[in-house]
Amino acid sequence: MIVVGSRVSIEYTLTVNDGVVADSNVGGEPLVYEQGQHDILPALERALEGVGVGESRDVVIEADDGYGPIDETLFEKVPARVIPENGRYVGAYLVAQAKTGEQRQVRVHEVHGEEVVIDLNHPLAGQTLRFAIRVLSVELPGAEPPS
């Protein structure tokens, strides 16, 4: 059973508002996290508290508890020349690099000739998240890992 400090291995499929699969690890490597360390969304951690090995859960997380609402202050106008030509269309995802070297995914929101509006919100901001989760293993705090 999942408790704070457990090392948990899960299989999941994430769908968003429109039912589109946004991410899944089914058939691949499991996601491993430590309960209570906020390795995953805190709302998802809360929903998985007390779940046992082999159990499945469908968890719905509203935008406010997921990646937050869309923040209108995170739309920025930039000269089109700083956007690669093949990325100058609405919906294009690009990787921007700050002066500090930090990289971040951004989305092209609007294109107006020599000016492009980019969206710096998290790609899942403003979306209701639906997780289908199956717990594969739970290693209790202080327990020796299986050999």
Account of the protein in words:
The chain contains 1 helix and 9 strands, in the order E-E-E-H-E-E-E-E-E-E. With 147 residues, the protein is mostly beta strands. It folds into 2 domains: 76 residues, Chitinase A, domain 3 (Roll); 48 residues, Thrombin, subunit H (Beta Barrel), CATH 2.40.10.330. A hairpin with a 5-residue loop joins strand 6 and strand 7. The longest helix is centred in the first third of the chain and has 7 residues. The model has no long low-confidence stretch (mean pLDDT 93).
Reading off the top of the CATH hierarchy, the class of the largest domain is best stated as Alpha Beta
**Derived structural class:** mainly beta
- By CATH, the topology of the largest domain is Chitinase A, domain 3
Q: Radius of gyration, Cα only, in angstroms?
A: 19 Å
Instruction: Please tell me what the overall shape is.
Output: elongated
Helix content: under 10%
What is the number of domains? 2
The low-confidence runs, each spanning 5 or more residues with pLDDT under 50, are: none
Relative strand content: 35-45%
